[in-house]
Amino acid sequence: MATAHSRAAARLTMAPAVVLLLGWMLIPLSMTLYFSFQRYNLLMPGDEAWIGFLNYEYFLTDPAFFAALWNTLLLVGGVLVITIAGGTALALLLDQPFWGRGVVRLLVIAPFFVMPTVSALVWKNMFMNPVNGLFASLAKGLGLPPVDFLAQIPLASIIVIVAWQWLPFATLILLTALQSLDSERLEAAEMDGAGPLDRFIHIILPHLARAMTVVTLIQTIFLLSVFAEILVTTNGGPGTATTNITFLVYAQSLLQFDVGGGSAGGIVAVILANLVAIFLMRMIGRNLDI
Amino acid sequence: MARAVSTRRKLVVTVVAWTVGLLIFFPILWTALTSFKTEAEAIASPPSFLAFDWTLANYAEVQSRSDYFRHFLNSVIISVGSTLIGLLVAVPAAWSMAFVPGRRTKDVLMWMLSTKMLPPVGVLIPIYLLFRDAGLLDSRIGLVIVLTLINLPIIVWMLFTYFREIPAEILEAARMDGADFKSEILHVLLPMAVPGIASTLLLNVILAWNEAFWTLNLSASQSAPLTAFIAGYSSPEGLFYAKLSAASTMAVAPILILGWFSQKQLVRGLTFGAVK
Amino acid sequence: MRSALSLTGAAVAALLGTSVHAETISIATVNNGDMIRMQKLAGHFTAAHPDITLNWVTLEENVLRQRVTTDIATKGGQYDVMTIGTYEVPIWGAKKWLLSLDKLGPTYDADDLLPSIRSGLTIDGTLYAAPFYGESSMVMYRKDLFEKAGLTMPEAPSWSFIADAARKITDKSKEIYGICLRGKAGWGENMAFLSAMANSYGARWFDMGWKPQFNTDPWKQTITTYLGLMKDAGPPGASSNGFNENLALFQTGKCGMWIDATVAASFVTNPAESKVADKVGFALAPDNGLGKRSNWLWAWTLAVPAGSKKAEAAKTFIAWATSKEYIALVAKEEGWANVPPGTRSSLYANPQYQQAAPFAQMTLKSIQAADPKHPTVEEVPYTGVQYAAIPEFQGIGTAVGQVFSAALAGQMTAEQALQSAQALTTREMTKAGYIK
């Protein structure tokens, strides 16, 4: 087992990472916490004053807040469902032998490399635009009225854009997990007369549970702070239809330059993120003995 | 049923897989194609797929507006720099977490990951003020610092899960042979860890390359990477699909090509502990 | 291994080293046509001033505004020249965040600047920003479609004529939409249009006690007319259309009328970009006979933040970019129709410009018809035609813009939208301490 010497060395080797992250978290966070109790608008210097919980009161009673909370859940949940279901299907497909597997794999992972800003711009303008977009052209070709995606189904459209970007990640992780499955178990089950669906539910799915947990964890971390896709496509609208918590805090602090209000929002977002984190970690802890 | 896959089945799978693959890839392909069209052809309805007059004018136009290579170089420096520094800090940390776990290791790891859930907008103003006072605004080194810090949890987590898969017995054996602490790392652990480190490195370069919030907000002209390059195209006046496509292609192509070429290395370590 | 590490370290350090030239100025600018043209012509400036190097930061309007505001308010000092609008100049100038531009050289001729534009950039007799181009808004329409429908556009139309004509021209089966108006949320997007439109209906943002006025009849008429008109005669997806989107629609022949910035005139009449270049007519923005037309006043200007360490070089550049000589340079290189309009009287007196720009007189009349000091029928405590020049307006205007954009997308009724706008504006104004 590990000696006292190596334990001390271990603590020492962890120190830089821990100290850096602690600093990165605590310094700005304590400043944010301080600002959140201040009247502090960037455009009105000299007007700062201690105002207690007023910023929190305004942020939490903002009708946009609950809309944003709900949108955040829908966005994270929607993308997770699509990427995990789609990723599983794609992994099963790519695990089969067929001609040109290597190339198809390259095609499937490509969206992962695309900048969120670029993918949002491309989807918004070249595909979803109701007049000049490709989908509109398709609809016209079929004699259907073009759908105005970002006005009629804004949140769903954003979910699709984000899911497109994250599908490759889910596929890759699930595919790796799938390939580690002992093929003898599948063959044995087949010999026993289990159909494809039975085999999927009783052997493949349990085997993938761990990978699905990992995908959920990593993706949630990134999905909670989806921002560029919203800024580029809808600016949080129409109304508050696509405003998530991150975007709401952005609107407060960088559109209204209300640093006090934005900071209060930031602190609320941090608390919410931590709730999600605790929940996720519990789930991971059960599923993933590390 | 015969175990050998019938040719017919293979044919069906091939058709389905290629169709799905091309559909997923289509937005990128379409963008690349559009970048070679004229603005008028770019919005033509019905759209032309390949039969148009190919032109490089959009690339020339984009280049004349902003110097691509300066932005490109900044992107390379920032993403590679932050990844290398991140690895320097994370490899030792992940190593000790994986091989000398304490009671609190799991908590520390989870705490690290949870720092990534904080919305960056919430702390932009504090960071901006700190950077101003430190003279780090619009500097590559400032962006390297920020990107190192925001990606550090992912680096640690990824390395940790990879190191965990290295059997501890090998280390024990090395220790029996009288290898000391340092040579244990250098001669035993590192060679085994190289694939995981390579994979982590690639993933991080990709994440850092595509990071658009901090790079846009903390850079102006000197340090602006490709994310800022593309920000000027979000809706210029008049017809702009072809120019947008050209700028997008220029911003995405380097990282896409890198990703494709190193796909094997990237995928090998990209398990995040998904496989037992 | 150790040497390998230190080598890597050295390489990283070398790569990270930032090089700073003594006379490199950073210019933050917006990605619209005139600014991009200036960027292309900047070689003439650097040829004449070899000691000054220009670094451009070209951003989309909203991103630009956020970046420069953050920078100037925190005194970040990232930019030496900032492109800002007439909304920012009075607020920032009053705070002494900008350097005085009174001395831009003997040949600058500040008296040549259009009075209505110049007065908005002057605080207590000091000029704080130099106008690069100025604009009002007006009606651009398709003469061929009007002729086909048997209609004649008067020089100063009323809203009832516009509404009627828009519905007559519309032919959705051919993708011809009678009228294109802004719907994309933002205080500088849909709210610029709607606030100016509301002025012509006798509405105002605030009364003299800073109470929001969305619960009044004039606003109700404005929003109901706007929504009805866009539903019957507007293009699909209007709730995400801003200036640029509408410009693309008009240039591709999909709009019968478009009420928007006067600078658009040179784009829609440019045969290289516009399919309908030879078919465009112009008219003043519509009114309701109440004495105010629905046109706004705006200028993009160049200013030097007070923290700039290269103020002299920055001023030299601004003096060049907003000079008569620059206008002549654009005329020589790109033709008279493409010069930045709306800043100098001498331009409108120039016969070559009048000939090349059929929209020149209409632009000048529109600019002169706007009065930022008295924008509304009833008295108001703020200045600004399509905005109220208070720091809170950006946030409030954008939030209200979101509400009206949602109404345009069909997510709520006019009534609900107005109630919601009234509630949120009251909330913000109370928080900011205007309403006690």
Defining key terms:
heterotrimer; B: 276 residues; mainly alpha; MetI-like fold; C: 436 residues; alpha/beta; D-Maltodextrin-Binding Protein, domain 2; 8-stranded mixed β-sheet; 14% strand; disordered N terminus; Sugar ABC transporter substrate-binding protein (chain C); SBP (chain C); Bact_solute-bd_prot1 (chain C); signal (chain C)
Please describe what this structure looks like.
Chain A contains 13 helices and 2 strands; from the N terminus they run αββαααααααααααα. Chain A has 290 residues and is an all-alpha fold. Chain A has a single domain, classed as MetI-like fold (Orthogonal Bundle). In chain A, helix 10 packs antiparallel against helix 13 and helix 12 (245-255) packs antiparallel against helix 13 (259-287). Chain A is globular and about 80 Å long. Chain B is an all-alpha fold and 276 residues long. Chain B folds into 2 domains: 7-59, no CATH class; 66-231, MetI-like (MetI-like fold, Orthogonal Bundle), CATH 1.10.3720.10. In chain B, helix 5 (105-115) runs antiparallel to helix 7 (140-164). In chain C, the strands form 2 sheets. In chain C, strands 1, 2, 3, 6, 7, 8, 9 and 10 form an 8-stranded mixed beta sheet that branches. Chain C is of the alpha/beta class and 436 residues long. The longest helix of chain C is centred in the last third of the chain and has 18 residues, at 414-431. Chain C has 2 domains: 20-128 and 298-356, Periplasmic binding protein-like II (D-Maltodextrin-Binding Protein, domain 2, 3-Layer(aba) Sandwich); 137-296 and 373-431, Periplasmic binding protein-like II (D-Maltodextrin-Binding Protein, domain 2, 3-Layer(aba) Sandwich). Chain C starts with a helix and ends in a 5-residue tail after the last helix. Classes of the chains: A mainly alpha (290), B mainly alpha (276), C alpha/beta (436). Chains in contact: A-B, A-C, B-C. At the A-B interface, helix 1, helix 3, helix 4, helix 5 and helix 6 of A face helix 1, helix 4, helix 5, helix 6 and helix 7 of B.
